[in-house]
Amino acid sequence: MPGRHYILGTAGHIDHGKSSLVEALTGTNPDRLPEEKARGMTIDLGFAHLSIEDPEDQGLRYELGLIDVPGHADFVKNMVAGVGSIDVALLVVAADDVWMPQTEEHVQILSYLGVRRMVVALTKVDLAENPAEAEEEVRLHLEGTVFAGAEVVHTAAPVGKGLEDLRRALVEVLRELPESADCGRPRLFVDRAFSPRGVGTVVTGTLSGGRIAKGQDLEVLPAGHRTHVRTIQSHNAELESAGPGMRTALNLSDLVLGERGRKAIARGDIVTVAGLGEPSDTLDVFVERCEREIPGQPASLRPIRNGQRVRFHHGSGSHGARIFFATRGGLAPGESELAELRFERPVYAFLGDRFVLRDWPKTSSLAGGVVLDPDARRDRFRRPEQRAFLEIRSAAPGNVKAALRTLLERDRAVLAPALQKARFARGDIDTAARALESEHVCVRQGNWLIAAGWWKQAVHEMGRRIDFVHRQEASRPGMAIGDLRREVEERLPHKELFEALLKGIEAQGFERVGSLVRRRGHRAVLPPELRVAGDRIRRALAEAALEPPNPKELAPSAADQRALQFLISSGEAVDLGEKCVLSAEQYDRAHGAVIAALKRKGKATVSELRQELGTTRRILMPILDRLDRERVTVRLDDYRFLSKSFLRGEEEGDGD
Fold it and tell me: Which candidate, 471, 454, 147, 99, places its Cα nearest to that of 296?
């Protein structure tokens, strides 16, 4: 569908003409319920489509999904569900009634949700004695808000007055709007779910953060139901895919409507792709309160108490929670504070998402804010490191570099891809990671991003522990990796980091040898009582080259056997089975000779290889068996070949 897509949401007091204005602009009556039409009062959300051409750029059209909200105090929860994802607000104020309680409440809600662009439609100017005075009163009430500079357009919908001026004013605002961001993390906030006969389950909502395509597999959160997109529509047009900023209808498979215990979907659910994190029962947030009173709502002037039960409005959903403040016993109008929301059931939110808090009896809007930690833990909220984490994020919740840095400083290590529950594109996260690496804030180890300071200390401590074992037990060829793991893992932020650390100490002069790790160049020292036997075995292996005695002849006594086992475990000798032990030097020579012969010949029999090495079958066969096990060679009939994996590894090594 051509054009730039945005969401326009109405706001304003009951009976100020929101629905009439929408119908005059679009030709669609947004009141869809029979009781709404019978009572002449909007109860639930209504929807329409408005397409406007930019007169200064005739190739550009603005395709607006228009959401009409109820203005009655009893239906504010429905109003909030409709404006959770809007780009521009259309505030409707009747010239003969002017500023009323829900006008004030709706303006506060829009401000809490981060809406920053508004056009004011002053309606019913044909019924007002002095429309200019009404406009002045509107401007007075908007002073001190983010909407103070909003254009006020005089309209009278029944006679078509001001409609073109209103379209012009909307275009001027839309020109300044960036296109809806596509960060590859689509979320459809469901505001309607219904089941037309013969069609199955259909949901509608505002799509943000990414695209959804026909045939795509999706997930419904917070329940976690899996589903599949059969068809997609936007403004009654069938599409192959829908993008951010579009009103979108999805026909989904394997779901029903709101039946307990089944795979149900309803308003407040979020349709998204799998793999973008899990719902959480706790969010750490920044909360702010408007200092202005909402007439007729005493709760708007009372402090929010620590531990108070509130309703959390996010996207199209409403969720029960208790609120706890970081440093205060309560939050008065005009104040702001870090807080934690503890939910009755898990919710799914991203870093940077805006929300509104209302009181539990549903009588008043209290505050708004932004999500800072979408995966918060209740045992961490009071800790100094979490306080620092939240304070930095509250200053710049939309800064990807700050978000990644706070995560690294608090958690020490992050498994890529990081920041899954955030509205950042993968490319932006990678750029931020590279910048932090260049600033020596973090290091990259495999799939891990690790805080540089912690990494340096952890590598040092691991190396220090291995050196201690070398000093205390000089006869040991190294430290068992299993022992090192048991000592280190419990102190790691993630147990999976052990392997990264083990690899990291290689750059500090350590090496992994089988199941042991040791400082490079370390050689175990034979205990005094075994030195004579050990020296004799070394001489025997060196003198015999590729014709050594069998192990029983080499080590006839118990002391000899202990000394031989020491030489094998220390890497000085290679155990090739019951019939053969070679010095490491001779094994390496034989290993290289076999590879060289097969590279030259392409294939060779045992007899041919025996002649190449100048040894016996008793020695050669254990060597070849080991090379087969190590996938250096493969056997086919009577021939040995170099394996494909070995050759591929050599090619990659050459490329490096």
Answer: 99
Write the DSSP string, 241-281.
Answer: EE-TTEEEEEEESS-EES-TTSSEE-TT-EEE-TTS---EE
SS3 of 318-332: EEEEEEEECCCCEEC
CB atoms within 10 A of CB 298: 10
CA distances from 8 to 56, 115, 269, 521 (A): 21, 11, 21, 70
DSSP conformation class of 158: G
Q: For residue 225, give Cα distances in angstroms to 214, 257, 320, 450, 491.
A: 18, 13, 22, 34, 36
Q: Could you give the CA distance from residue 94 to residue 19 in angstroms, rounded to a whole number?
A: 12
Residue partners of 101: CB distance under 8 A and separation at least 6: 13, 73, 294, 295, 296, 297
Q: Which tens digit of pLDDT belongs to each residue from 114-138?
A: 999 999 999 999 998 899 999 999 9
Do the Cβ atoms of 180 and 208 come closer than 8 Å?
yes
pLDDT digits (tens, 9 = 90+) for 500-516: 999 999 888 999 887 88
Give residues with Cβ within 8 angstroms of 632, minimum separation 6.
591, 594, 595, 642, 643, 646
- Nearest Cα residue to 330 out of 310, 352, 351: 310
Which two three-digit tokens encode residue 150? 């909003």
- Separate counts of helices (H) and strands (E) for the chain: 19, 35
- And the tokens for 487? 């000592």
